[in-house]
Design goal:
The chain has 500 residues and is mainly alpha-helical. The chain has 19 helices and eleven strands. Among the domains are: 68 residues, Orthogonal Bundle (Glutamyl-tRNA Synthetase, domain 2); 163 residues, no CATH class. Helices cover 46% and strands 9% of the residues. The chain binds glutamic acid and zinc ion. Zinc ion binds next to loops.
């Protein structure tokens, strides 16, 4: 492994949209390895495809990486000795390299128009060539022919002159992979606009930024020979390569934006915690020794190893991510858990309805009871929102079928008593922001029920059904505290108003 140390790795996203899990996984592996081996992690923006760049995506990428807790030693935001780190700011570097390669005979200007290239392609297909490629016909143009094309007003691209032979990639994940040059046409390095193609810019930047290991998605393995050829022609030392496996969805197809949740930002809005997502992503195409599944970022740094990256594709299983998220929620410091809930409730516009008050401390107190009542069942913070909404909005209507007991005169009298009891307690506890905490319900409700000849279990059941429309749920004690006196009174009134 000597050749990759002192380690310099890079994550090189194109700002063509938001950060998706594949990119995040690549970023994570790079950062983990850099931290593990005391190397440097570089962030490089590959923004040379003017047609695909989406404005605002650089900010989005940076924000998503920061949310995940992934930090880079060098990059567009914090600079560094190898800058600039945006390829759009390095155009003179690529133009200069292209010129040098033309001078040394490794590259040439091609004046073919799109229509000519298309005709050539179709001719090859008609001849039975399955994978048509550029014929290389501009390789041999002389000075006069080039001048004539220029006079005609034709724009030129710069192509790399691929020599016959093969390139052997010694991939650190896949081992030796051979590419016969026969399948590669003379590829474009510089577009007629003067902007570089991905292969030129990536290869040149990897070498000139002293990157020692390129760890990236499998889909780039076929680009590696072109990049190695460019570096060889320039006499530059190539990095080592490690191509990490594809991520598939549950149906074992490539993850797609259309059919799957793939955006880091989407997971954030679904209430996934960054530490859970990081833990989950680490296991997509890599596993540590042993059975253990939960690792903090710092723990991952201790155990991450290039040698344990899988060759086979990884499968993205949202259920496992949610399971993992629940483990992290259960382990969150209580105050943090409550804070996140309050944020989610506020975001959903529920706080006014739930707490009757705009104070953060009242909201936190309410969230604390919520955690007691429902915390264990939550897989994500977002799961709490519909539960809270139901507590806030629902005015349950007694179901006649299940209300055999409820319809009796005794039950109605009992519920009326419970209502008075709550009103009385609320008056005594008016200073507690409407929260009815720690009422001695287990003594008081059966006592009230007994007055009307009802059983103990009816004492709880009737009240629960009147308040929630359901026979089972969170302990009444907590439910009383969450609903508060006003809602309890309102719901008991509603139950009592039903005629049977
Ligand atoms: N900009 C390329 C991408 O987003 C990066 C490929 C590479 O890491 O070389 O796929
Ligand atoms: Zn040409």
């Amino acid at each position: 492994m000597d050749s990759i140390t002192p380690l310099r790795v890079r994550f090189a996203p194109s700002p063509t949209g938001s950060l998706h899990v594949g990119g995040a996984r690549t970023a994570l592996f790079n950062v983990l390895l850099a931290r593990r081996l005391g190397g440097k992690a570089v962030l490089r923006l590959e923004d040379t495809d003017e047609t695909r760049s989406v404005s605002g995506s650089e900010e989005g990428l940076l924000a998503d990486l920061a949310w995940l807790g992934l930090t880079f030693d060098e990059g567009p935001a914090n600079g560094g000795p190898y800058g600039p780190y945006r390829q759009s700011e390095r155009l003179p570097v690529y133009a200069d390299i292209a010129r040098r390669l033309i001078e040394t005979g490794h590259a040439y200007r091609c004046y073919c128009t799109p229509a000519e290239l298309d005709a050539e392609r179709r001719r090859q297909l008609a001849e039975g060539i399955k994978a048509p490629r550029y014929s290389g016909r501009c390789r041999t143009l002389d000075e006069a022919a080039r001048a004539a094309f220029t006079r005609e007003g034709r724009a030129a691209v710069v192509r790399f002159a691929v020599e016959p032979g093969e390139t052997v990639v010694q991939d650190l994940v896949h081992g030796e992979v051979r590419f016969d040059h026969h399948h590669l046409g003379d590829f474009v390095m510089l577009k007629s606009s003067g902007w570089p193609t991905y292969n030129l810019a990536a290869a040149v930047d990897d070498a000139t930024m002293d990157i020692t290991l390129v760890m990236r998605a499998d889909e780039h393995l076929p680009n590696t020979p072109a990049q190695l050829m460019i570096l060889a022609a320039l006499g530059l030392r190539p990095p080592r390569y490690a191509h990490v496996p594809l991520i598939l969805n549950a149906e074992h197809q490539k993850l797609s934006k259309r059919h799957n949740t793939v955006g880091v930002g989407e997971f954030r809005t679904q209430g996934i915690l960054p530490q859970a997502l990081v833990n989950y992503l680490a296991f997509l195409g890599w596993t540590p020794e042993g059975e253990r599944q939960l690792y903090t970022f710092e723990e991952l740094v201790q155990v991450f190893e290039l040698e344990r990256i899988h060759r086979a594709p990884a499968v993205f299983d949202e259920r496992r991510l949610r399971w993992m998220n629940r483990q992290y929620l259960q382990r969150l410091p209580r105050a943090e858990f409550e804070g996140l809930l309050v944020e989610a409730f506020r975001g959903a516009g529920l706080l006014k309805e739930l707490v009757d008050e705009d104070s953060q401390s009242a909201a936190l107190a309410w969230a604390s009871i919520f955690v007691d009542a429902f915390g264990e069942g939550l897989e994500t913070i977002a799961d709490a929102v519909p539960i809270a909404r139901e507590l806030g909005n629902r005015v349950p209507v007694l179901d006649a079928a299940q209300s055999g007991v409820e319809s009796s005169a005794e039950v109605r009298a009992y519920l009326r008593d419970v209502r008075d009891y709550v009103t009385g307690m609320a008056a005594k506890r008016a200073n507690e922001a409407g929260l009815l905490r720690d009422l001695p319900l287990s003594v008081d409700l059966p006592a009230l029920a007994a007055r009307h000849g009802l059983e103990k279990r009816d004492a709880y059941r009737c009240v629960r059904v009147a308040l929630t429309g359901q026979e089972h749920g969170a302990p009444l004690q907590l439910l009383f505290a969450l609903l508060g006196a006003a809602k309890i009174e309102e719901r008991l009134d509603a139950a009592l108003a039903i005629r049977h």
